[in-house]
Amino acid sequence: MSTDTLQADRSQPPASPCVSVCALDAAGQVCVGCGRSLHEIGEWSAAGNARRWQIVEAAAQRLARIAAA
């Protein structure tokens, strides 16, 4: 996830972080492709813009931790 995405206009919905690389981490809780938790993936379609932005930010942080490991 680029910093451009994280600094985008928050009044608009963010694009889905899905990158079509659907594989769960060893604990079976986080997608290593997009960084979202199973709960976040499930709630995405019904989530409002603010919640989607929260999900995008949390996913980006998880992906950074995965990359650093």
What topology emerges from the helices and strands here?
Layout: H1 3-6, H2 38-43, H3 49-68
Summarize the entry for a quick read:
By secondary structure, the chain is mainly α. It is built from 3 helices and no strands. It has one domain.
Q: What's the SSE pattern? A: HHH
Pick out the low-confidence regions.
none
- Total strands: 0
Roughly how many Å is the radius of gyration?
Answer: 12 Å
- Biggest sheet statistics: none
What's the average pLDDT?
89
End-to-end distance: 17 Å
Query: Count of helical segments?
Result: 3
Q: How much helix is in the residues?
A: 40-55%
Strand content: under 5%
Quaternary structure? single chain
Instruction: Provide the domain count.
Output: 1
Q: Shape, please?
A: globular
**Would you tell me the structural class of the helices and strands?**
mainly alpha
Name some characteristics of this structure.
3 helices, single chain, mainly alpha, globular
Descriptive overview:
The protein has 69 residues and is an all-alpha fold. The chain has one domain. Helix content is 43%, strand content 0%. The protein is globular.
